[in-house]
């Protein structure tokens, strides 16, 4: 028996487009004499459809598309994900269709309701785990989370005689997830002595990147087929063939790089933009975002703008220019000195007898934000926000200033990781070199003369260690102190994180690459007097 | 037996402050010879604590506060809400404490996981519904949602012999909720022949306003005690006394007004601000927000700023000035003509050979936003955003422009309701009169010469009808067409709503007053190709 894994890139809400992709894959599968073709979780609606699921018409429309797909299954079997509705309850479901007949439907049993997942907001759990038969094989269908649970549906289906387990997934990327997923599925295949056909969605959807990398494990837990990472793929498993073990090759930085590139590409394209604009400060964050954008969209679709004030150093301007030249992107310099002066004059009366403070600094950041938005409004560029996770964590960023933009590609990337990514890019992509001077210079917001990030923040090596423990691992201050970092520094960082929820609540969407990103997976109250 | 309802205003995360309030109320109850005092849902942590619940130390700290409260219960019984943890599972719980002894704990059975609620993200459901005894009475404790469910815990406790049901709630306000809640509890009391002691939280917490208005219903379903609306209260029910039926007096506009005032007051105070600034455009939205702020914070804590450009009409400026005079607030005029001109000069080269469009219009809105934020950064004012629900719905607002601010008090108020609220205020509060010219003028963003809202939008009477159906009632286009509104108008409105998710995702928190507000209760994907 030949089973195809159609690792496709669906789009949330694009019932027509997603269905067309399914139909195309079925045709391809037929050509390749495949017996069964499998699609990722919630194929028809895209994942996660969120509150679209509360629209009755959306559910009906998705069912109509399923009917259309069934029509296309002459002489082939298909497992496709859709939203089922029975007695007014919704189910995250996958079909088993054979030769234009809907043989059965498997509902999802384990509904994730943590981090970015809200499935219990919408769905009801499966009441039973079924077995389907095809070509002498007994097949159990499971949906994403179902395979993550010990003594769960996969084990019960195996106990009921299944020799093949299909898992249709939409498992978002984070660092190291590939390894975790691979080990889990291998263990599940081995312990149950079943072949596992694992189809994972690929593509960017708002803050999530689904990384694909579908798998086939044999019934000894050996990886025998591996799909592409961060790209669509079409894999065929032949149950009559012998396979060697696939040699795995994890490259953490490469994965992060590809995740960020795909996240940008899909956000821009699926939202019908073509071009992006980035404010180039001369620092490493904007440099990295620009390089990622070039890899995602091509150099002709990326516009860099430097907006020097009297505080900006000549070095910063030169570096930005050199970066733009290295990348071959469109580049403009728009000095903001005149505008800043006009703000000073306008506010002269209001601000007399006050000391210069963050108000004056933020005006500069906000003027730059305004210019980027003016270019966006005039030329339909999407503004990419350049802030990193370390900054967002401690609020070292200006609301409506450097925080403006439709998408914040590196908002889940800690500063220390940004340097590693810059090195990775310079070592692997000679056409998009980030100038060394950008990498080597001391980080500065350049909002007042001589300002350095280190005036306001601990060294990034320290800051990032604490942030990782506090945000990603959920440790408290006492537990973090085990790192050997000065207690007052930990105190200050934790205070700043807790105190800047209001900024992050208004931040642009970013790409989740860690187990705990800011955004929909971290729901802290703004009004909150708890201090650990 | 005497039972007190301590209708208190807790703050999320303020374990110390909330516990102190509990202890004070216990002392007061003792003085009044009360046998049992009851507090609202999750008293110790405040509601909703959201992802604070994922911090193990937060849970431990909340348990320590419970121990402290138990110490204070000599010769009295107390029902207080807290987060229980058993075998690594969390429960939304209420205690039954008697004379310094924790007699028992009731967990919540029905965990709301819809709209703004995420309780299944954190909590496990109760396994049993208990009965406690006091002074010859049999008492069942239920928690919020538990009383909303037919054939739920209340019915089973009554069947098990309870003659008194206590419900500890954190039930947020929306229009008409008071009536719905009252009818529900009355029905529940009558059908089970039980006295119901209903304690509802009061206070603003981010986007939610809990309206208090606790109740006692007798076992015939008659309302016999009613707590204050939108204020703390301390009610005593004496089971030996006879009560007359309370005459209810619902006033929809008054309730909305009080909800908005309390929402502003608590957001500002709980976040440790004292003063707010509002940009006064001369229109009704900013006028209403300013009036609400005066009622919430006092006129000395409200700053109004007019920022005229060359497009602003003299009428607008005069109206703003008159409003400020009527209210007695601090008022400044900061003209932005110079700044706008400097933007034009700076962008001259970029914008040559282009037609003036939304880019130029938005620059004005964003300059105003910058000035408000500069005042905020300099003087520590919280900026109140003045946008209404109709605007946010169709994206008739400028990101980083009129959308700037820490809190958006009227972002769930449709434009047509804003006019009604203005009339309500003018009829009831002679000290905060909104000038008639503001109410009568045709709505305009004044971002280009002669601009009117009606150039871009259908009449608000039409727009709001469609928005109500589409957003609040979840109807589709076909269903909305039954209103008799032109299909192309409905089409346009629905398109705009769907298309502006990206703006709302970066909007300031607002106060929920309808069954479906934008914000945490409405989770739409931004990348979404579904068009109804």
Please provide a written account of the structure.
Two copies of one chain form a homodimer. By secondary structure, chain A is of the alpha/beta class. Chain A folds into two domains: 2-250, Nitrilase/N-carbamoyl-D-aminoacid amidohydrolase, CATH 3.60.110.10; 256-457 and 500-510, HUPs (Rossmann fold, 3-Layer(aba) Sandwich). The first copy, chain A, is 38% helix and 19% strand. Chain A is built from 18 helices and 21 strands. In chain A, the strands form five sheets. In chain A, strands 1, 2, 3, 4, 5, 6 and 15 form a seven-stranded mixed β-sheet that branches. In chain A, strands 7-8-9-10-13-14 form a six-stranded mixed β-sheet, with helices on one face. A four-stranded parallel β-sheet of chain A has the order 18-17-16-19, sandwiched between helices. In chain A, strand 13 and strand 14 (223-226) form a beta hairpin. Chain A is elongated, with a radius of gyration of 25 Å. The relative contact order of chain A is 0.09. The mean pLDDT of chain A is 97.
């Amino acid at each position: 028996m030949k089973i195809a894994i159609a690792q496709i890139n669906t789009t949330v809400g694009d019932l027509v487009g997603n269905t067309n992709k399914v139909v195309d894959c079925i045709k391809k599968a037929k050509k390749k004499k495949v017996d069964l073709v499998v699609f990722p979780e919630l194929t028809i609606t895209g994942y996660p459809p969120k509150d679209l699921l509360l629209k009755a018409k959306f559910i009906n429309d998705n069912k109509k598309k399923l009917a259309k797909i069934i029509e296309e299954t002459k002489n082939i079997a298909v497992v496709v994900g859709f939203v089922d509705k029975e007695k007014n309850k919704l189910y995250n479901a996958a079909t088993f269709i054979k030769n234009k007949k809907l043989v059965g439907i498997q509902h999802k049993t384990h509904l994730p309701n943590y981090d970015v997942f809200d499935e219990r907001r919408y769905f009801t759990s499966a009441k039973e785990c079924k077995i389907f038969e095809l070509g002498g094989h007994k097949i159990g269908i499971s949906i994403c989370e179902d395979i993550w649970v010990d003594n769960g549906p996969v084990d019960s289906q195996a106990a009921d005689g299944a020799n093949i387990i299909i898992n249709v997934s939409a498992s978002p990327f984070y660092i190291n997830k590939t390894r975790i997923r691979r080990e889990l599925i291998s263990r599940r295949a081995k312990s149950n002595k079943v072949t596992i056909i694992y189809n994972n969605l690929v593509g960017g959807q708002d803050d999530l990147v689904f990384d694909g990398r579908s798998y086939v494990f044999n019934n000894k837990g050996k990886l025998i087929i591996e799909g592409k990472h961060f790209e669509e793929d079409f894999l065929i498993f032949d149950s009559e063939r012998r396979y060697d073990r696939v040699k795995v090759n994890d490259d953490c930085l490469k994965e992060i790089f590809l995740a960020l590139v795909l996240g940008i590409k899909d956000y821009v394209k699926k939202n019908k933009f073509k071009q992006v604009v980035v404010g180039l400060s001369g620092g490493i964050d904007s440099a990295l975002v620009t390089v990622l954008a070039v890899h995602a969209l091509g150099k002709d679709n990326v516009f860099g703008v430097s907006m020097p004030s009297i505080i900006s150093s000549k070095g910063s301007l030169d570096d930005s220019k050199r970066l733009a030249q290295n990348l071959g992107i469109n580049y403009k310099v728009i000095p903001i000195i005149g505008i800043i002066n006009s703000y000073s004059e306008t506010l002269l009366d209001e601000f007399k007898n006050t000391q210069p403070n963050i108000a004056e600094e933020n005006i500069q950041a906000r003027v730059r934000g305004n210019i980027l938005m003016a270019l966006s409004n005039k030329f339909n560029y999407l503004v990419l926000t350049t802030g990193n996770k370390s900054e967002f964590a401690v609020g070292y960023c200006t609301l409506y200033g450097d925080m403006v933009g439709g998408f914040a590609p590196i908002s889940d990337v800690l500063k220390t990781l940004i340097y590693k990514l810059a090195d990775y890019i310079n070592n692997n992509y000679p056409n998009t070199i980030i100038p060394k001077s950008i990498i080597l210079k001391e980080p500065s917001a350049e909002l007042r003369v001589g300002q350095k990030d280190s005036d306001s923040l601990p060294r990034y090596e320290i800051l990032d260690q604490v942030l990782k423990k506090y945000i990603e691992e959920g440790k408290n201050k006492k537990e973090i102190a085990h790192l050997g970092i000065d207690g007052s520094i930990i105190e200050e960082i934790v205070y700043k994180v807790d105190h800047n929820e209001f900024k992050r609540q208004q931040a642009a969407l970013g790409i989740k690459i860690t187990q705990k990103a800011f955004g929909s997976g971290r729901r802290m109250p703004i009004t909150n007097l708890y201090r650990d």
